[in-house]
Amino acid sequence: MGQGVPAGGRIVRPNPIADDGSDQKFCSTCAFGAACVGNGVDKIRLSELHCLVEHVGPYRPGQSIVRTGDRFGAIFAVRSGTVKTRLVDLEGRELVLGFHLPGELIGLNAIHAETYPCDAVALDTVEVCRFSFPALATLATRIPQVQQELFRRLSKDLGEANLRKQEATADERLAAFVLNLSARYEARGFPADSLHLAMSRSDIANYLGLAAETVSRVLRRFQDTGLLKVDGRDVKLCEVAALRDVAKNLLHR
Amino acid sequence: MGQGVPAGGRIVRPNPIADDGSDQKFCSTCAFGAACVGNGVDKIRLSELHCLVEHVGPYRPGQSIVRTGDRFGAIFAVRSGTVKTRLVDLEGRELVLGFHLPGELIGLNAIHAETYPCDAVALDTVEVCRFSFPALATLATRIPQVQQELFRRLSKDLGEANLRKQEATADERLAAFVLNLSARYEARGFPADSLHLAMSRSDIANYLGLAAETVSRVLRRFQDTGLLKVDGRDVKLCEVAALRDVAKNLLHR
DNA sequence: CGCAATCTTGAAAAGGCTCAAAACGGGTGG
DNA sequence: CCACCCGTTTTGAGCCTTTTCAAGATTGCG
Fold it and tell me: Which regions of A156-211 does DSSP assign to beta strands (E)?
């Protein structure tokens, strides 16, 4: 556990709320600890991060982790399950911004307005780590690696958000989507060729800027041509090379 | 000018290269100084920023400020002119990521890979401020407001990048584009109802995910219906309320 | 077992793209 | 000063991918 340590005239103290009495649940034992906090921070200092993390959940499918307009106070790392971020406009139409797997962060886009600009909704059973942002920012001034890791995460998300705007056919989008999910699961130690979609067809469609019917049709065609094996929300990648070829315009840039 | 000041065991010294001998060109006299470095940093500490800024340019139309793959070492603030960021894929097709007006930052998306992920090209005569990123990051650990401002900028860009993915008709896109440019110019003290486009129709089209012909046609129609007065690259906003109405699905969310 | 939500499938409509060509505008050189 | 040339912009017409609308099939769950 971290002790109170002087930091630019401030004192960072262990957060009794965060320290929920179950040390073994902390990130050192979390399957996604490394992915979550990055590799730049050495083990000893990592314990200081633990002092400001708070485990929250489980959330049930459909429950909100944050809501649009909520006051920004923390960023969240997904521990388990899948989280959808989305906007709902005045007419009730939804815009799906992204899907977040374990180890990925939510709330970085809220720093600016000091208000969450979108909902974060659990798609299945979800547990998260809550990082108080003021505390994290203070820690970042003391530990350059923490600052750097935050900059890096923001920068990475920014770059990826920018890339998502390129126009492409429905086939390209779906192939890239499946490959992207596969790669993200694989990076977390799950099999790369077999994945379960936590989100509905219409969520996928909305995220990719397509109609739900189109998603259905393309998936069907991918199955007919042997690229995928689709069984409801279970997807098996059969011809990864061929998928990559379909998605090539969206991948190597 | 800033003196060397201890900072977490490091010394930050005035950068002789940055201090190009023309104090009056520094941001305190720069028209966009306030917009550029933000309002969180008080005047005295702002002088420390000056020690690590370097004025670069002018660049002529078509010249690159950074190229894809260049080693990341600095972020840039546009001082004058308009900068286009873009990707060029293997087949030579261009993808326009954004346009940057004076006061806006370039290069934040390069922190992650430590390599610029896109080209930044001058559309007209462009001058920029160069901020060494390592120096800026070090300063950020000493001055929380600088850190906060960087987080905020990244967060803002991230949020805006996410919004740009929503699908919309050509009319909605164009109307929103013109209104967005207008608002950005206005925030910098330029007239809001009369603007000059530094970019070509095909750049606009590419940025908005449309064909150049479509941009031309929609602009024509906007002119015919009295929303705009278009003369080449000079655009006059005649019916702002009506434009807002056309773009409403892309604005208030 | 039956309802409700999700997913699939088919046929028709539409918005924007492609291709092609003409108009325009701004430099350059005679 | 004018003719010419190049790149950009505009305009037209047909086409194509995806959407929409409308049913029907599945699935999960009370």
Answer: 194-196
